[in-house]
Amino acid sequence: MHELALMENVVDAVVEATARRVALVRLEIGVLAGVDLDALRFCFGVCTAGTTLAGAELDVVLVPACARCRTCGAEQPTRSLAAARTCGSFDRELVTGDELRLKEVEVL
């Protein structure tokens, strides 16, 4: 379960950044990041117990995936890189959709 390691890193980063009590942690997570959101939310509760984040809210903002075709240059939303573009090319790069970013922390 890599969600536990991810959340441990997020909590450690927030604890190191502020000694104040935290009310909200906002993460941006790409839809193709391979993160199980239910598991991540569960791990948030486990990892924040006994810290300045205990009782804080976790807000997850999902980032849609967008890929750029290396053949024709077009960018378009995507659900997977396994399907061909309309030009027939499979050679695409992900522009958004795989991120896991600590976006915001609200303190009390």
How is the secondary structure organized here?
Blueprint lengths: L1 H16 L4 E9 L6 H12 L8 E7 L2 E4 L5 E3 L14 E5 L3 E8 L1
Parallel strand pairs: 1-2
Antiparallel strand pairs: 1-6, 3-4, 3-5
What does this molecule look like?
By secondary structure, the protein is of the alpha+beta class. The chain has a single domain, classed as hypothetical protein PF0899 fold (2-Layer Sandwich). The protein has two helices and six strands. A three-stranded mixed β-sheet has the order 2-1-6, covered by helices on one side. A three-stranded antiparallel β-sheet has the order 4-3-5, with no helix packed on it. Strand 3 and strand 4 form a beta hairpin. Helix 1 packs across helix 2 (37-48).
Mean pLDDT: 91
> Biggest sheet, in brief?
3 strands, mixed
CATH-defined topology: hypothetical protein PF0899 fold
Measured as a percent range, the helix fraction is: 25-40%
CATH level-1 class: Alpha Beta
Order of strands, main sheet, comes to 2-1-6
The low-pLDDT segments are none
Hey, roughly how much beta strand do the residues contain? 25-35%
Gyration radius (Cα, Å) is: 17 Å
What is the N-to-C succession of helices and strands?
HEHEEEEE
Strands, count: 6
Shape: elongated
Keywords:
hypothetical protein PF0899 fold; 108 residues; 33% strand; 2 helices; three-stranded mixed β-sheet
What's the short version?
With 108 residues, this protein is of the alpha+beta class. It is built from two helices and six strands, in the order αβαβββββ.
